[in-house]
Amino acid sequence: MKIAEVSKRYGVSTDTLRYYERIGLLRHVPRNGSGIRDYDEASCNAVEFVKCMRDAGMSIESLVEYMELIDQGDSTREARKELLARQSIAIRERIADLERALERLQYKIDHYDDIMADSERALRPEE
Length: 127
Prior knowledge:
127 residues; mainly alpha; Multidrug-efflux Transporter Regulator, Chain: A, Domain 2; elongated; coiled coil; MerR_fam; DNA-binding transcription factor activity; HTH merR-type domain-containing protein
């Protein structure tokens, strides 16, 4: 699959895909006889994984570290698991932060509902 097809399929720009390859996130993208990238299933799986982890907020540095660990083989399984566990904790902390922000927003919305209801009552003539 050519880079433009991969870009469209995963919603990642071709520049980003080239950057990911340059910094080591996409390590084994095959090339055809003319030197043009020809993504295979494994490369597409790597793109999908990187995109998922970036969408989850994982840093480029952590992803590079993770991919380096994969290349080092099975002996790094525990280290990879720990890296992903740290990412899981970070996501849970972000979710908690977002839930607190949502609660605060809802409080403000409810507050405005109360103020507007009070204003409407004040404008209505006594019955």
